[in-house]
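ping. complex inputs:
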Amino acid sequence: DIVMTQSPDSLAVSLGERATINCKSSQSVLNSSNNKNYLSWYQQKPGQSPKLLIYWASTRESGVPDRFRGSGSGTDFTLTIDSLQAEDVAVYYCQQYYSTPYTFGQGTKLEIK
Amino acid sequence: QVQLVQSGAEVKDPGASVKISCEASGYTFTSYDINWVRQATGQGLEWVGWINPHSDNTGYAQKFQGRVIMTRNNSINTVYMELRRLRSEDTAVYYCARGPGYCTSTSCEYSGMDVWGQGTTVTVSS
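pong. complex structure:
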């Protein structure tokens, strides 16, 4: 199984500042046949279902604000939230869908400082 | 609109079975995989398995092998997850989610789980 490890476990950032969440996979999730990383990011607010933010490591899902950016390749990935808004308070998860089981990171709780 | 609607909350005794449904609407049901993901209170997301409604292929996480069965009824655009021999550790919210696989008649693409059900709370308690 591919193990996904996020850092940090929690993060407090001031409104308008940048938040950075890291995700590392135990093996590469880069599909060499199409050069796409099979890595997605989800946002989960309290009492809600997860919401897809980013797929292929850096492609924003339709309707997701452009302050959310995904980057990285292979085994190391980053979710960056530029100019943090109050509504961004949530738990963020990375997930690999390169191979089953489609494993998630343990989650990063983002709060306002 | 595209949506997945799940069945209601369940309370079960240890050792019993539970069967949850997930009804899809707003898209071609057989074009996308459906996954099941669970979340215990205050915990992270745990992938349970997937089903392809077109082929009926399934895949389960090793820890659920032998206890979980995923099925589908294409006439009513619904997938089901049955979990047997329930124990207290199975108490969780269970979500169905569309993706990451999407297939046309000629090719498949994998791009994340883009639509989620509202969740079904399963409580296992005597």
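Chain A has a mean pLDDT of 97.
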